[in-house]
């Protein structure tokens, strides 16, 4: 896993919207579609982890940025 995807999952885990947005705005993250391609150690996509944690602001941010519900 790239350090960007690790940072993405950490931001979701710690419910840090500011860091999440910073990662999602990053050109490399956009180019690599990190929001849909990254997986954590449990093979969860970012959206699925956010749903599991029940964090609505994080879920909304991910969905607004193009996270797919089925991936």
Uncertain regions: pLDDT < 50 for 5+ in a row?
none
How much strand? under 5%
Mean pLDDT: 92
Helix content: 55-70%
The oligomeric status of these chains comes to single chain
Q: Total strand count, please?
A: 0
- Counting helices, strands and paired strands, the structural category is mainly alpha
> What is the gyration radius calculated from CA atoms?
10 Å
Number of helices: 6
Terminal CA distance reads 17 Å
- Can you summarize the main beta sheet? none
| Run of helices and strands | HHHHHH
General form = globular
Characterization of the model:
This protein has 71 residues and is mostly helical. The protein is built from 6 helices and no strands. The chain has helices at 3-13, 17-25, 27-31, 34-37, 46-53, 56-64. Helix 5 (46-53) runs antiparallel to helix 6. The longest helix is centred in the N-terminal third of the chain and has 11 residues, at 3-13. It is globular, with a radius of gyration of 10 Å. The chain starts with a helix and ends in a 7-residue tail after the last helix.
List the helices and strands and how they pair.
Layout (H helix, E strand, L loop, with lengths): L2 H11 L3 H9 L1 H5 L2 H4 L8 H8 L2 H9 L7
Helix pairs in contact: 1-2, 1-5, 5-6
């Amino acid at each position: 896993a790239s350090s960007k995807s690790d940072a993405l999952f950490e931001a979701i885990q710690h419910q840090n919207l500011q860091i999440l947005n910073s990662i999602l705005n990053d050109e490399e993250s956009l180019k690599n579609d990190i929001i849909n391609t990254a997986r954590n150690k449990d093979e969860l996509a970012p959206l699925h982890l956010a749903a599991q944690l029940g964090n609505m602001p994080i879920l909304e941010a991910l969905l607004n940025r193009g996270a797919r519900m089925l991936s």
